[in-house]
Structures
1.
Amino acid sequence: MTILSQLQQALKPILEPYLEQAAQLGVKVPHTWVSEAADKRFGDYQCNIAMILAKPLKQSPRDLGGAIMNELNATGIESLAELSLAGPGFINFTITAQAWEQQLQAVTTDEHLGVEQAAQPKTIVVDFSAPNVAKPMHVGHIRSTIIGESLSRIASYLGHNVIKDNHIGDWGTQFGMILYAWKHDLDEAALEQDSIKELLRIYQKYSLLCKEDAEILAACKEELVKLQQGDAENLEIWKRCLELSKQGLNQIYDRLDVSFDYWLGESFYNDELSATVQLLVDKGLARESQGAIAVFSSEDKKNEQDCFKIHKDGEWRDNPMLIQKSDGGYNYATTDLATLFYREAQWSPDEIWYVVDSRQSLHFKQLFEIAQRLDFKPKLKHIAFGTILGQDKKPFKTRSGETPQLASVLDESIERAAQVIADKNPDLQGVEKDQVSQMVGIGAVKFTELSQHRLTDYIFSWEKMLALQGDTAPYLQYSLVRIQSIFRKLEGEYEVKGVAIKLNEAAEIRLGSTLCQFAERLPQVLDDHRPNLLALYLLDLAKAFHSFFEACPVLKSQGETQASRLALCALTQKVLNQGLSLLSIEAPERM
Ligand code: ARG
């Protein structure tokens, strides 16, 4: 059990009568009473329950806090923590070195490093990455891919059953242009050479042409209709295009070490779409409107809170979700509804997570509300994220003004990493240098993404993300390299088993306590789907390690002190490695 849980448990019997009283008065009482202290100078954890309960219980918060603290002190908590009352009634807990030492013993011998496994494992479908076939997969998609992969890994590590599904856009209107171009303007040799590039070329050229030339636009639309009606030639081309695109995508996923259990793209649901629309009509959820079919407001909310209403030209109007166009075609929403039904029938998930750009938030609000009206069981969550900006604070673009391609971002990052490494360690050469550059370059891109709050727009900066000193992947990777080198310098084999960790120096306590908190911080990532909490934790850990390494000699110490410090190094190595792997970042042996 983590230290945090031990404190929660110690407080429980004491708080129960107070919480009951408050609940009877209709006060919403919290379920967690202790949190890590914001300012570690006054303690490791704090409890502010007295501030919440004092008013309804008609006491002064300071008196209530004092009373709770006295009761706690009477339970013999002093071997775990020293208590103090602060400010208007905070209880501060300073954990004893001995309690940290005991905890470290448990963490060292636990295969999950002290992380408790979910008591009730959930089945979670994670819908992420989902690029559109034959359209560019750009840096915007990187956020979904990297955040989705990391959240999936973390959920699995916490004991959940995760199903990763790549819901690619493989049936969009882009195929009209692709088909037309394929028949009139395809460079077969280029397609052989680099299929993604050639598909992109025709897509870009023809989306421009379609804007300028009504005849071409009409011809492209015709090709699309033929495809949708099952024309054999067009289906053949579409399949080939899909195959090539998947190969290209897989190359990128391999580089990123990202994988999926399923690739059930939009086209997979084609045969279900008419039944989906029918079902919604039958249930009275959807109705005809100007030749199309749409879902409207249920008229039981305030306009401001109704995602099926929009304020326009000074009044509130309907903002329905279209599920069938007037020409009989189906919408993005129809596919997403069919996908919901399929996932429910196939996997009975407890939750479905959509890791998708925040610009689609209205789509998901409407989708989720429809699911609710249908009494759909799984909990649905839109895990949204913001935009990546360039130095000019506008959406990140290449010098020539295009949206940068993911592959070229990775290439450039690796190239720049190679330069940083050459400056740092000129001895590193050949294959090893290449491998290290890959790990550092790709790790830097991923960490930049994962260390941001997912909802904030962030500015992309090569210098910042590749800095060896800073809140970066290379800094964490370098910390691991430093630990490796300690063990390399050590004479003889090193065996951690049976070593008692002793925390005497302040820097040892800081490192030891941070190590114990991996198990406390990791589950918090899933509270609001924020991998940046893990990224920040790893930075805290690396900083604690560097302070320890400066203040406490390891190789120059002896006997039990050395054994204990080496055990701290070994555990730091384990936790850093595990944490980075949950962020899908690799770490080199040397750099
Ligand atoms: N292909 C879509 C896009 O690039 C994202 C799909 C997300 N998943 C979903 N079930 N809608 O915008």
Note: The CA atoms of residues 433 and 561 lie 36 Å apart.
2.
Amino acid sequence: MGNRVRNMGQTIVVKIGTSSLTHGETGHLALATIAALVEVLSQLRQQGHQIVLVSSGAVGVGCARLKLSDRPRTMALKQAIAAVGQGRLMRIYDDFFSVLQQPIAQVLLTRGDLADRDRYINAHNTFRELLKLGVIPVVNENDTVAVDELKFGDNDTLSALVASLVQADWLFLLTDVDSLYSADPRTNPDAKPISTVEQIEDLAKLQVQAGDRGSRWGTGGMATKIAAAAIATDAGVRTVITKGQIPDNILKILAGDTIGTQFSPHPEPINARKHWIAYSLVPVGTLVLDAGAAQAIASQGKSLLAAGILSIEGEFQSQEPVRLCDPTGREIARGLVNYSNTELSLIRGNHSDDIPALLGYAGAETVVHRDNLVVL
Ligand code: GLU
């Protein structure tokens, strides 16, 4: 994995949501916006940058194609509609990009593709080859086959995980507002645009209004964008929220203009493997720790030993991802566990030296080794 997906220029991931791609009332495609976006992305490619486009719209475009006026409510119907819309969406992108002789590729992902280490590395290698070929991958969640437990849920999260996967320099989250505000600008005249966020935690101090649920067709909102920014900036990716209707802003922002909201990359990004443990995996169990163990992990970066475990929730096997919680139940870390829940119920609270006698065989000394553990 080590080598970054880069030959020259910067790696830029752009995510566009259904609310920017379609007209709210009719659900028809916003052709002018798409054309402008295609021009900007092709221009960036010409300048030597590597581009990934994460595009929503499969469900919205599918509904328009089938003349359905409401968003589908059942999973199966949604999956069927996405299958209609995704092909249509790609056809439109390919037509537009072809005019500018820019090759594109369709990449459909489910969370399961990123949660499995081998598949994650495969996906990384595929993106690397596509980018080396000068292709713009157009990514969406594979809505037609994704099951609930293994869904990204929204493309903001997907785009942040893709930005981390390709070790991007930039992630642009294009949306229907021009930036993040200190309150809801539609109802609060004192709401102020926020141009820079150095640390995501600062937003809590500003009491930023993140309750917005997004538009009728999209599934995101400001809350998912802030969560996506946290994932991406933790991987060292500079993240920007800006208006989708003006794709030219991407060029201006790259040239140094202050437009939209920019989230600075974390000064000490977590390494690629730990980032994968923290954000791509879906935890299947929980270990509640005593105060001493929680403290040793959170402040001293120690491994977790059996002695520090108070209780175990869920069913899991060795090497599966689990949440580590303090005695109050607050999640403090995530990691890959060395024992199944059945084994842990026999050894929890005990000294590591007693493990062979309790289990009848010698196991790992740690329950979660610090190399496989990420403090959140
Ligand atoms: N994958 C969904 C689609 O293409 C969109 C998810 C989202 O809006 O974030 O329709």
Note: Residues 17-18, 56-60, 140-141, 143, 154-155, 218-220 surround glutamic acid (CB under 6 Å).
